[in-house]
């Protein structure tokens, strides 16, 4: 039964990168449906295990405590919310994300299962990548010379794919079988091209971080793999970048320095200034979950989302909500910064680096990949802590044995 519950979670993670491609009218995306199914199976499995063993034990972590506090605070904000209906909907979304995160943490009991979920996400990115190429070949642009898989915002999709590329490279580095290594790495040329087809500036910055991770970690590989990757994959990437990506994409990406220094970042700076004013006016408690648009409307005359995770959380939840959100991120990623460097530590630090450009320019606090990647990071840090503890005990027992012999 435990395996069935984990399989349902695996399918849910597999669907996340392409969730918007398939949507059922009146119900929602396929990821939502599978999320509900995975939740039901997960709680049924836990309940049966508790009944049979008479000692129910739910695996928990400090990250889940912060996440639960974030859900509760969002629910409390209904009392003073500018838009109670939107706050209820957003709180329900956070609740669902918390529950599935709880189940993912509970059933991902070892590194093998953690890697299995990563493979699920990478395989799902293949479908989103193929969907993007499909719209490109059929010239079904979502905006001028911008292409995405059906149902996706180009900026959101680029974030999804950048995470997939980083995970794929990590899986390839840790795969002993040549076939698995090539299967993991083969997505990079195609997904990176898909990111450029979205013409997302935040996506391009995140992709740069991905390739920084690739170049830095090449030293881990044997020389034959370095030569193979450089010759084969980068030739393919260059071919795609030159022959497939429209000139408009490069023209748009070239405006990043100008937009940052003197532009508005597609009106984002105007929204951020209004958001800061709304934050100051509602410093402690915020304006209610999901109510950012109404909070900035008096300042800019229109309803707009924040295009910034931290500002969105700050305006909607106040200092308290922002502190809780930082608590979630710190417990998920800080262990990789504090402890000794290793292949896994470097990977998760770069994953954080991949997320930050999108966190600074998109409203991703209620998106599934955001909660998924923080949950997976929490699982990885927890498992590494267990290994360190076991090694410490073994070393201590070994030293005690030596002292006894003396």
Query: Stretches where pLDDT falls below 50 for ≥5 residues?
Result: none
- How do the helices and strands follow one another from N- to C-terminus? HEEHHHHHHHHHHHHHHHH
Cα-atom Rg, whole angstroms?
22 Å
Number of helices: 17
The dominant shape is globular
The strand order across the widest sheet is: 1-2
Please report which band the strand proportion falls in: under 5%, 5-15%, 15-25%, 25-35%, 35-45% or over 45%: under 5%
Structural class label: mainly alpha
Number of strands: 2
Report on the biggest sheet.
Answer: 2 strands, antiparallel
Describe this structure as you would to a colleague.
This protein is an all-alpha fold. The chain has two domains: 1-57; 61-405, no CATH class. It has 17 helices and two strands. It has helices spanning 2-15, 30-53, 62-76, 84-107, 111-137, 154-173, 178-185, 187-197, 201-217, 223-243, 247-253, 256-261, 268-281, 292-300, 309-338, 343-361, 368-405, and strands at 23-24, 28-29. A two-stranded antiparallel ribbon has the order 1-2. A hairpin with a 3-residue loop joins strand 1 (23-24) and strand 2 (28-29). Helix 1 (2-15) packs parallel to helix 5 and helix 13 (268-281) crosses helix 14. It is globular, with a radius of gyration of 22 Å.
């Amino acid at each position: 039964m435990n395996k069935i519950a984990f399989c349902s979670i695996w399918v849910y993670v597999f669907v996340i990168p392409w969730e918007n491609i398939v949507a059922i009218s009146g119900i929602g995306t396929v990821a939502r449906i599978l999320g509900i199914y995975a939740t039901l199976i997960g709680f049924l499995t836990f309940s049966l295990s508790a009944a049979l063993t008479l000692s129910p034990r739910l695996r928990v972590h400090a990250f889940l405590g912060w996440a639960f506090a974030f859900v509760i605070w969002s629910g409390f904000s209904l009392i003073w919310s500018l838009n109670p209906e939107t706050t209820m909907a957003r709180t329900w979304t956070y609740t669902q994300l918390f529950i599935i995160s709880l189940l993912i943490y509970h059933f991902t009991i070892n590194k093998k299962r953690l890697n299995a979920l990563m493979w699920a996400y990478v395989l799902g990115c293949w479908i989103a990548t193929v969907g993007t190429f499909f719209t490109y070949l059929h010239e079904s642009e979502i905006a001028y010379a911008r292409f995405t898989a059906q149902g996706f915002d180009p900026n959101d999709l680029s974030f999804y794919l950048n995470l997939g590329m980083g995970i794929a490279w990590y899986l390839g580095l840790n795969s002993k079988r040549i076939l698995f290594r090539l299967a993991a790495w083969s997505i990079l040329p195609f997904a990176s091209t898909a990111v450029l087809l979205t013409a997302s500036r935040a996506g391009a910055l995140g992709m740069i971080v991905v390739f920084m991770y690739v170049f830095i970690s090449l030293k881990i590989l044997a020389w034959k793999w370095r030569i193979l990757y450089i010759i084969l994959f980068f030739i393919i990437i260059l071919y795609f970048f030159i022959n497939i990506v429209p000139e408009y994409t490069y023209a748009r990406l070239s405006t990043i320095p100008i937009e940052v220094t003197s532009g508005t970042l597609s009106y984002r700076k105007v929204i951020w200034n209004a958001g800061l004013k709304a934050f100051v006016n509602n410093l402690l408690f915020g304006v209610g979950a999901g109510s950012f648009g109404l909070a900035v409307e008096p300042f800019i005359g229109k309803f707009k989302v924040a295009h910034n995770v931290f500002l969105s959380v700050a305006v909607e939840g106040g200092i308290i909500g922002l502190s809780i959100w930082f608590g979630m991120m710190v417990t998920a990623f800080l262990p990789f910064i504090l402890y000794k460097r290793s292949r896994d530590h470097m990977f998760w630090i770069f994953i954080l680096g991949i997320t930050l450009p999108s966190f600074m320019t998109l409203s991703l606090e209620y998106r599934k990949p955001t909660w998924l990647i923080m949950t997976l990071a929490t699982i990885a840090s927890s498992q590494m802590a267990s290994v360190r503890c076991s090694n410490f005990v073994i070393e201590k027992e070994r030293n005690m044995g030596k002292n006894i012999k003396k």
